[in-house]
Specification:
This protein is an alpha/beta fold. The protein contains 14 helices and twelve strands. The strands form three sheets. The protein has a seven-stranded mixed β-sheet, with helices on both faces. β2 (81-85), α4 and β3 (102-106) form a beta-alpha-beta unit. α3 packs across α4 (91-98).
Length: 389
């Protein structure tokens, strides 16, 4: 590289795929089973064993699908309300609309960036059926308080854990709490990936049965069972008008070898976050909320908040980082800022002051396992240059 050549572009995120994952995918392709089959069943079994405590795991083609299946299995329908946070991706709320229910959005806590339990309880009405907290960025929401609220009011809890593998809350892995269902994401930039995919986990057998049924058209027998039977297996019944949410064996083949790496992935992400914390300590920023003492933060995101004394605004900061060939993003544009949610529910920024303030000053920096120490140092140097002027 020439002496004055710019540094290569550093992406915001990259998956960490090894030779074992590649070999397993090749094996799936050669086996003839490329849709839901033995590798999907193995991945489900491995994931359930990883969580333990009698958990059942249902592999799906996205976390959105998992959230939809969870709410459907809990009987959410027209006239019901599902309380969640405005500070999330649209999938969290839109699954309620798929079922004809209404999402009710509440603000976040400043010290967690997760759904505010106090506002959650105030938002409960006779129509409320489910509380749907989000573990933002990989930091656990206040599940002890949210669970207590649900118990007091006789409500179900579904956790959006798209960011939260292997997050813990009070020493317990997310996915093993007392919630009715928890849904993980395996999208390309998540803690582990299957390209696209997700996992619904529950310890309620009736929820697991319904989710499995509805995952594939409401069929009484899945394709693998029918096509591998040693007696004629062509007959099946449609029990309900289900969906097309099954995970493929090609995707599951990746997940089989990603899951054993999750602890190492978390350690690397945590080490990058710690370096960022040290590097940015004297700058005009708010650092991301840490996990509680003794708990694990998955560090799916590293969200830096610029303070009013920063020499540049958030949008200019992002533009200048890109000019320095460093990718970044914003998590999230809150739901109340989007036309559909804003207009349907007459939402204004004043209704969500914490989320709105966080959104307007936040930038998500690269944090992924394929980053080298030199990459991390480069990000720290760039941020320091821009915010020390």
């Amino acid at each position: 590289m020439a002496a004055n050549a710019p540094a290569p572009f550093l992406p915001f995120a990259l998956p960490d795929i090894g030779e074992a994952e590649i070999a397993e995918v090749v094996d799936a392709l050669r086996s003839g089973w490329v849709t839901t089959g033995p590798k999907t069943k193995r991945f489900e079994s491995d994931f359930a064993a990883f969580l333990g405590e009698g958990i059942e795991a249902i592999a799906v083609n996205s976390a959105t699908a998992g959230l939809h299946l969870a709410l459907e299995a809990l009987g959410v329908g027209p006239g019901d309300e599902v309380i969640t946070t405005t500070h999330t991706f649209t999938a969290t709320a839109e699954v309620a609309r798929y079922l004809g229910a209404e999402p009710v959005l509440v603000d976040i806590e400043r010290d967690t960036l997760c759904m505010d339990p106090a506002q959650t309880e105030r938002a409960i009405t006779p129509r409320t059926k489910v509380l749907l907290p989000v573990h933002f960025g990989g930091r656990a929401a206040a599940m002890d308080r949210i669970g207590a609220i649900a118990t007091r009011h006789g409500l179900a809890v579904v956790e959006d854990a798209a960011h939260a593998l292997p997050t813990t809350h009070q020493g317990k892995l997310i996915g093993t709490l007392a919630s009715d269902a928890t849904v993980f994401s395996f999208y390309a930039n998540k803690a582990i990936t299957t390209g696209e995919g997700g996992m619904l986990v529950t310890r309620r057998p009736e929820v697991a049965r319904r989710a499995r049924l509805m995952r594939l058209h409401g069929m009484s027998r899945d394709t693998f069972d029918r096509f591998t039977a040693k007696v004629p297996g062509w007959r099946y019944e449609i029990i309900a008008p289900g969906f097309k949410y099954n995970m493929t064996d090609v995707a599951a083949a990746i997940g089989i070898h990603q899951l054993p790496r999750v602890a190492d992935f978390q350690k690397r992400r945590a080490s990058i976050a710690a370096r960022y914390d040290r590097g940015f300590a004297e700058l005009p920023v708010r650092l991301p909320p840490p996990a509680l003492p003794g708990d694990l933060h998955a560090w799916h995101l590293y969200v830096l908040q610029l303070t009013p004394s920063a020499p540049v605004g958030r949008d200019q900061f992002i533009e200048q980082l890109f000019a320095m060939n460093i990718g970044c993003s914003v998590h999230y544009i809150p739901l109340h800022e989007h036309p559909y949610w804003r207009d349907r529910y007459q939402l204004t920024p004043e209704m969500f002051p914490v989320s709105d303030d966080v959104f307007r000053c936040s930038v998500s920096l690269p944090i992924y396992t394929r980053m080298t120490d030199a990459d991390v140092a480069r990000v720290i140097a760039a941020v320091t240059t821009l915010l020390s002027r």
